[in-house]
Amino acid sequence: MATSTVENYIKNIYTLQFEQGEGGNVSMGELSSSLEVTPGTATTMVKSLAKTGLVGYTPRVGVQLTEQGKELALLVLRRHRMIELFLVKVLGMDWHEIHDEAEALEHVISDRVLERIDVLLGHPELDPHGDPIPDKSGVIAERDLLPLVDCEEGQRVTVGRIEDQEDRFLQYLESNGLTPGRGLLVSGRDPQAGVVSLEFSDGAKRQLGFEAARKISVELEVAP
């Protein structure tokens, strides 16, 4: 069984390689920054992971997951995101306070308990932040999302995923009703001011700076 440290490394490499990158090599600088360790510490650990067959490592180029490593990463992500959803839906915790709890629980939850949670929640595909939950086979449902900042005036969208999950940003979005599943009309867009104007179905209006709008991915609503 992989240790929590191994699982954390594999999960972070997956995120950098596939969710924030294009499937190529992850540099030691990127990985060490993500894990908040020194590049030397990250390199030492990656060399050990390479010996186990979980990653491929090339000095001065970077690291990437093997198929075995990708399989483990998807399992850890499934645990983490399922636990986050459970904490919100069943225990009533706020979405900005669940990450650390899920980080601890993802390494100790049994497959049996995880599958019971899956059934209880109705086999969900998304966690509270809109991140995809891999199924039991490691398959992730495909979605066609784009940054809110790139939407044009007059487009109707649904909030799909929050890219920045820092506590204060999540609290800001929640206080403004900008949570996954919420429908919006892009009522205006001012590149000079760097502001996107939004209108909710209940008539409420909000303005969002371009910087914040880049951190929100949305799905375009298709006209009937």
Automatic annotation (TrEMBL):
Its main location: cytoplasm. Signal peptide: none annotated. This is Transcriptional regulator MntR. SMART domains: FeoA (SM00899), HTH_DTXR (SM00529). Residues 1-66 form the HTH dtxR-type domain. Homodimer. Belongs to the DtxR/MntR family. It comes from Pelagicoccus enzymogenes. PROSITE patterns: HTH_DTXR. Keywords: Activator, Cytoplasm, DNA-binding, Iron, Manganese, Repressor, Transcription, Transcription regulation.
